[in-house]
Amino acid sequence: MCRHVAYLGPGVPWQDVLVTPRHGLYRQSWAPRRQRYGTVNADGFGVGWYADGDPVPARYRRAGPVWADQSFADLARVVRTRALLAAVRDATEAGADGEAAAAPFAAGPWLFSHNGALTGWPASAAPLAAGLPPEDLLTLQARCDSAFVWALVLHALRRGDALGDALSAVVEQLAAAAPGSRLNLLLTDGGTVAATAWGDTLWYLADPAARRTVVASEPYDDDPRWTEAPDRTLLTATRTDVLLTPLKEPA
């Protein structure tokens, strides 16, 4: 379920990352090549991006399929950015949250997406929910598992965790509380990207000479430099560096 991508690099229109590549996220909404769960990502989409001089990202999200949104094509052609995070959604369960359930989720300088599902949702999440401040639970952006995962990540970020530390801590919590969950998480602040490979595919394209890094559920073209991150891995990346760190199964 779901496909997502994060880009750091020179300023480009959205379409250079999402539409123009032969197998970009736009096409992955109906014809993903490496998706293991689900087949069509038509339950919403979103793009979050950073404008020069503003650390707080903007978002464009809709509840329906990206190919049916005529405004998306115009925005993708003219909006330029040095950093973005985008996703297309295949809902685990039917719900009434609409575009509120579409990634990227956002707060402050951060954008977040979850590719996967929590087993036993929502009962499996109850013990972890008890550890969140009541205000965080009352302000969940949607009633789906991904919004809850975002609440856990945001709580870790607000207590001062670095991006990668926040993701690894939350994956450890969720894997213990809901074994068998798929927890491919993607997070950025516009300068760094952190991601986890846990139960689904994660790839990255590093081009240090061009100061460009792309992290995605699957390659958007056939460039031989695309590299797959091993399962149970934390990836942290800047425009010039990529670091892979193994993640441990919970005891």
UniProtKB/TrEMBL annotation:
E.C. number: 3.5.1.118
Gene3D superfamilies assigned: Glutamine Phosphoribosylpyrophosphate, subunit 1, domain 1
Single GO MF descriptor: hydrolase activity, acting on carbon-nitrogen (but not peptide) bonds, in linear amides
Keyword Hydrolase: yes
Pathway per the UniProt entry: Amino-acid biosynthesis; ergothioneine biosynthesis
EC category: hydrolase
GO aspect biological process, one term: ergothioneine biosynthetic process
Substrates-to-products reaction catalysed: gamma-L-glutamyl-hercynylcysteine S-oxide + H2O = S-(hercyn-2-yl)-L-cysteine S-oxide + L-glutamate
Function: Catalyzes the hydrolysis of the gamma-glutamyl amide bond of hercynyl-gamma-L-glutamyl-L-cysteine sulfoxide to produce hercynylcysteine sulfoxide, a step in the biosynthesis pathway of ergothioneine.
Protein name: Gamma-glutamyl-hercynylcysteine sulfoxide hydrolase
NCBIfam families, per database record: ergothioneine biosynthesis protein EgtC
Name of the gene encoding the protein in the UniProt record: egtC
Any matching Pfam family: GATase_4
Domain Glutamine amidotransferase type-2: 2-251
Assigned keywords, A-Z: Glutamine amidotransferase, Hydrolase
